[in-house]
Design goal:
Layout (H helix, E strand, L loop, with lengths): L3 E6 L4 H10 L1 H5 L2 E4 L1 H11 L3 E3 L7 H10 L5 E5 L9 H14 L2 E3 L2 H14 L10
Parallel strand pairs: 1-2, 1-4, 2-3, 4-5
Helix pairs in contact: 1-3, 4-5
The structure holds 1,3-dihydroxyacetonephosphate (13P).
The site of 1,3-dihydroxyacetonephosphate has 12 residues, from helix 3 and helix 4.
Catalytic activity: dihydroxyacetone phosphate = methylglyoxal + phosphate
Keywords: Lyase
Enzyme class: lyase
């Protein structure tokens, strides 16, 4: 089965998400992706990824991803949170991260852990990262 990955980034982390996804592009093309609205829009427009776009985070997108996760439809969450900016939907963010803990779903909330999760999922699927210039 294809890995089912949720990709979410707060505004100041969206460029990081695009750079991250570009690095794992071949692998992510073979995954089933969900994303909050604006993050998903950028992933689709800038990288051509096929993404199940939920509502934007402040309008319930985190909760929609949380519901998918609770229903057993998500294997890992990459959630690049902005720890320096207060978010109007902080309760929704906490609910999603809590749901990951309740259901023991890997949740990477920064780039370092995102690389670990993605490279591990890739290795488990027998993928190799394409080396630049190779
Ligand atoms: O706010 C978010 C996550 O909490 C992200 O939502 P967007 O991808 O719609 O910006």
């Amino acid at each position: 089965m294809k890995p089912r990955i949720a990709l979410i980034a707060h505004d100041k982390k969206k460029d990081d998400m695009i750079t991250l996804a570009a690095e794992y592009l071949d692998f992510l093309r073979g995954c089933q992706l969900s994303a909050t609205g604006t993050t998903g829009g950028r992933l689709a427009n800038e990288l051509g990824l096929t993404v199940d776009r939920k509502h934007s985070g402040p309008f319930g997108g985190d909760l929609q991803i949380g519901a998918q996760l609770v229903n057993g439809q998500i294997d890992a969450v990459i959630f690049l949170r902005d720890p320096m900016t207060p978010q109007p939907h902080e309760p929704d963010i906490n609910a999603l991260v809590r749901a990951c803990d309740v259901h023991n779903i890997a949740c990477a909330t920064n780039l370092a852990s995102a690389h670990l999760v993605l490279s591990q999922l890739m290795a488990a699927g027998g993928y190799e990262k394409t080396k630049k210039g190779a």
